[in-house]
Amino acid sequence: MNTAELGLPMVVPMPDAPARVTIWEVGPRDGLQNEAEILPTAIKIEFIERLAAAGLGIIEATSFVPARWVPQLADAAEVMAGLSPSATLRFPALVPNERGFDHALAAGVEEIAVFGSVTESFARKNLNRTCDEQWAMFEPVVAKARAEDMSVRGYLSMCFGDPWEGPVALERVVDAVGHLRDLGCTEFSLGDTIGVATPGHVRALMIALRDSGIGLDLVGIHCHDTYGQALANTIAAIEVGVRTVDASAGGLGGCPYAKSATGNLATEDVVYALHGMGIATGVDLLALAETSRWMSDILGRPSQSRVVRAMQPDPVQ
Fold it and tell me: Rounded to an integer, what distance in angstroms lies between the CA atom of residue 289 and that of residue 294?
C-alpha cells in the first residue's frame, strides 16, 4: 500500500527547512479545559498515554488551577499520579500562582508553565490582575520552580489581537516576553488567542523578537484556527526560525475567557504538513489520528482535524 492510500503525505523537502521541529502537545490541558463535559480521570490518563505512544514527547498534562475556575481539570493530582515516570517524556503542567505551584510540586510535576497576557483587558478577565500585577504574581512561582531546577514556560495570550483592545503592537509583545525572561522563564509560547494573525504578521513579530535579543530557539508559536490561518501562521514561524509549535490533537480547545477563540491548530494537520516538507517530528501520524478519532468518539462529535477527517471519515458527520 502506498503512502497516499494510507493517508500519508508525499515527502518533497523544502529548501532550507529545519531537520526537525518539536511538537508541544496541549490537548489534555488546553483542549480538555474547554469541554463542557468533564471526562473521567482514567480517560484523561489514557488520552495522554495514547499520545505518548504516538511519539509525542512533550504533552502538557493538566493545570493546577482552582476547581471553581476550571472544573474540567480539578483532578490534576490524580492525573499526574496515574502517569508512568519516563526519562524520555515530558509532562508539564500549568500553574497560576504559588498555591498552584505547591500543589503541582507535591503531585510530582517536573516542569511548569505560567500563563500571562500581553493586554490589560485579558489580564483582568483571565487573572483578575493588571499586566504589572501578573508579573508580580509570577515572580515567586518562577523563583520557586527555578530553585527546584525546573524549566518554566511562559505563555502569553493576545499576542496578535485582542477582542476588547483590537490590534496589538509588536513592541508590546516584545516587552512582555522580556518581562518573562527577566523573571527567569526558560522558554516562551506566543498565542494567537483569537486566531486573527496572518503569516506576514507572524514573521514580523518573530523578527522583532530576534532583533531584541530573544533567541527563536526559545520561542514557541500557539495558533488558533478561527479564520483558518493557524497552519499557515505556524509554517511562517518555522520559516523564520521557530522550532517549537503548539498543537492539540484533533484541534481540541479554545479559550474559556475569550469566546471568539475557536479550536487550536490540530496536531495531525501540522504533522502532515511538516512530514510532507521533509521535517521530522517523531510522531506516528496514523497512531495520532487513531487517538483523535478515539477521543472524538468519546466526546460524541467529529474531530476538527482536516487530516483525521480525510484519513478516517467519521460516521457522526
Answer: 9
DSSP β-bridge partners for residue 188: 154, 219
SS3 per residue for 40-74: CHHHHHHHHHHHHHCCCCEECCEECCCCCCCHHHC
The pTM for the full model equals 0.94
| Displacement of CA 133 from its chain's centroid (Å) | 24
| Grid cell locating 206 | 518573530
CB atoms within 10 A of CB 12: 8
Q: Kindly state the cell numbers that stand for 145.
A: 520552580
Residue that has been written with the C-alpha cell 514573521 in this structure: 203
Strands 161-162 and 166-167: antiparallel
> What local confidence, expressed as pLDDT, does residue 263 receive?
85
Please tell me the distance from the alpha carbon of residue 222 to that of residue 31, in angstroms, as a whole number: 13
Residue 297 contacts residue 47 (beta carbons within 8 Å): no
In the prediction, which pLDDT does 296 show? 95
Residues of the chain short of pLDDT 50, as ranges, are 1, 257, 260, 314-317
**Other Cβ atoms within 10 Å of 118 Cβ, number:** 26
Give me the residue spans of the domains in the chain.
19-311
The residues that are catalytic are: 255
Q: Which fold has domain 19-311?
A: TIM Barrel (3.20.20)
The tens digit of pLDDT for each residue in 141-164 reads 999 999 999 999 999 999 999 999
19 DSSP assignment:
S
